[in-house]
Amino acid sequence: MALDIKPDNVAKQDVLGRKQFAAEISTQIANYLNNSNESLVIGINGEWGSGKSTLVDFVKTDVVTKTKGITIVEFNPWMFSGKEALHSAFLSQFSIAIGNEKHKIRTKLKKLSEAVNWIEDANGGFKSFFSLSKKFYDVSVVKLKAEVDTLLMSENAKCLVLIDDIDRLTPSEMLEIFQLIKLNASFSNTVFLICYDRQVVKEAITNQYSFDGEKYLEKIIQVDYSLPDILPERIESLFFENLNQVIARHEIKFDSAEMNFPWVYRGLQNFFRNVRDIKRYFNTIQFRLPSFHQNVNIHDFLIVEAIRIFDYESYSLIKNNFKGAVKFGPDSFYRNELEGIKKGRSNDLYNHLFEKQPVRNRTDQYRISEIEFFDRYFSLTVSSKDVREEELQYYLNLKDNRVAYLGSLIEAQKIEFLLRRLSIPSLYAYEYEKRNVLEDILSVWSSYTKSFAKYFRDTWDVFKVVLASFEDENKGAHLAVDRLVVTEMHFNPARFLFRWYFLESLERKTESDLVSFSTVIFSRKEELLQSIQLDLRNFMNQFLWNDIHGEFNTRVFIICFAKYLPEVYLEQSKALISSNQRYLFKLLKIFVLTDSTRGTPFFLDLEYESTLLPSDLKKLFLDKVKDINTSALEKKEEDILEFYLGNS
Q1: How far apart are CA 283 and CA 292, in angstroms?
Q2: What is the pairing mode between strands 159-163 and 592-594?
Q3: Which position has the higher pLDDT, 132 or 508?
Q4: Complete DSSP assignment for 450-500
Q5: Is the pLDDT of residue 493 over 60?
Q6: Please, which residues bridge with residue 195 across strands?
Q7: What's the DSSP call for residue 341?
Q8: Which helix (H) or strand (E) holds 561?
Q9: Letter string b/e over residues 201-236, b meaning 16 or more CB atoms within 10 A of that residue's CB
């Protein structure tokens, strides 16, 4: 049975099996009131959040069926501030509960309330209590109190006074409440039922006033009931019942069984000791999760929220330091700060969240451990450069202008996030979806050739996922080749590069993901070769004489030019090396790898040197490179030239 999640309201469901216990207490109260005129103080002892309020609610409901005409007085001490107000408020509450039908008792209680005033004492503490006691036993007050007792007896008025939430009070307020009970416990036909955490109250009184809190309580509380412990399996059951309720109510696609492992093996269960912890957690979850569940990993979100609520210090350490630790490495200040999590309650959960795990399906998306999604868990918003789940679904359901939509995401610098979503295999249930996505992610790059350099790896990942999603591998491979050999009026860097990958996979076995498709690729090798040769002839001038497609595409094009049209390449390159310094630097940039951020050379890659510079051409190239006038070069080009000459 799931909880009725409301802000600290008493639950009406018997989720902890307390009704039987409550019935026993109410029976004892009824028997006592029916057989004795003396007052009685009963304590309900239990930890904060252990269900004391629920138990009292059950007692209250049950006792009225067993004691005819009983008056229930509910007094909430935390609603009143100050010694002057507390005692008067109690008596006023008593008189209101008695009701008009017992107007004589009510009138006397009102007079008693007016007669009793707290004696103000700047020093507080015991002087006020002793002063109150003195005032309370003043002749007029004693007389009024005796008259109230007489009326309670003569009217056969039976009263149950309920005092809850003592746990919320400060030590001094706790002592004031017990003093109030002590001074009023002589009312006839009256039972006080108080809820408290005995250990907390005892320690508070002992620490605040330096006397034995245990002995003090023994003098006031005559009958003490302790709540039975809540079994861990019941807390677990409540957690999953409430989680399933939230999921069902808001139609969230999530299998709650995913929380079994962190609950049992990573310590999530240790955060939940009682019903109040469950309520506190799910009050937050049902407020924060429904509007944002499509944009986070729900498994991760549920764990992060538990850390935020129950171990805020660790939550802050994660929020403020994880990204810095990733960026600046294991020896950084941020990594050292994260070590503080080991001192808290969340270390195992932190390790669980940030373990490297393979992405298997859509529920594995948007992990907090992925930098691009990390901030979502703390801001509950999506970055302006990110793609919401709604945008992904919008694209997948588009019938027209799909490529144009992808183009708008490239311009908005959101395409990386969409490509990451499209690399989840479970997206592709139908063949038409596979065909559409495959064609879209290839076609769009004709209009964004320079941008392709930044996103080619993500595009290739999607291409491979779609290819692998076909049950019939040969069918998928044929479809992929069909899409790659399409001829376009404009240079398409994606088709060009992926054709090269296919051809290279046959020669060098470099792409292990394509091994299972090698039979089809081999059977259509000539088509791939012809299409790449056609592009080499059609767009040769754009790459040799101009720089309109960017360095990455130029590198790929020239390598393929030398490999697949070697005779034409040698003829063109010989002429260009002899006369065109810009072409020299196109070749140099193939050999000298530079840092993408600062442009600083860091590695000499001569893998394709023999292909690009056969013996005679290499001599010519070296002679021309050595003759370059460095005074006219930009700093970046000068660094590349110096690095090449110094390392070749």
Answers
A1: 16
A2: unpaired
A3: 508
A4: HHHHHHHHHHHHHHHHHHHT-SSHHHHHHHHHHHHT---SS--HHHHHHHH
A5: yes
A6: 44
A7: G
A8: helix 550-564
A9: bbebbbeeeeeebeebbeeebeeebebeebeeeebb
Using the predicted structure, report yes or no on whether residue 363 has a pLDDT greater than 60: no
Judge whether 238 and 15 are in contact, CB under 8 Å. yes
Higher pLDDT, 83 or 57: 57
* Segment 191-243, tens digit of pLDDT: 989 888 888 888 887 887 777 888 888 888 888 888 877 788 889 999 999 99
Instruction: Report how far apart, in Å, the C-alpha atoms of 431 and of each of 384, 428, 434, 436, 472 are.
Output: 32, 7, 5, 9, 11
∠ at Cα 232 (230, 236), nearest 5°?
115
- The tokens for 49 are 């959040």
Share of the chain above pLDDT 70, in %: 83
- The residue among 352, 320, 346 whose CA lies nearest residue 333 is 320
pTM of the model: 0.55
Closest listed residue to residue 422, CA positions, set 393, 451, 446:
393
Helix (H, G, I), strand (E, B) or coil at 72: strand
Strands 40-45 and 223-226: parallel
pLDDT above 60: residue 1: no
Residue 445 has pLDDT above 90, yes or no: yes
For residue 10, give the DSSP letter. P
Q: Which fold has domain 19-226?
A: Rossmann fold (3.40.50)
- Residue 514 is encoded by which pair of tokens? 């394509």
H or E, element range at 312: helix 312-328
Q: How far apart are CA 403 and CA 445, in angstroms?
A: 9
pLDDT at 536 over 70: yes
Q: Are 55 and 18 in contact (CB under 8 A)?
A: yes
Cβ-proximal residues to 200 (8 Å cutoff; 6+ apart), any chain: 48, 167
436 vs 28: CA distance, rounded Å: 74
- What the block records as the tokens of 394 is 């919008």
Cα Rg of the chain, angstroms: 39
Residue with tokens 């998306």: 365
Q: Is 103 exposed, middle or buried (0-12, 13-18, 19+ CB in 10 A)?
A: exposed
Torsion of CA 471, 475, 481, 486, to 10 degrees: -110
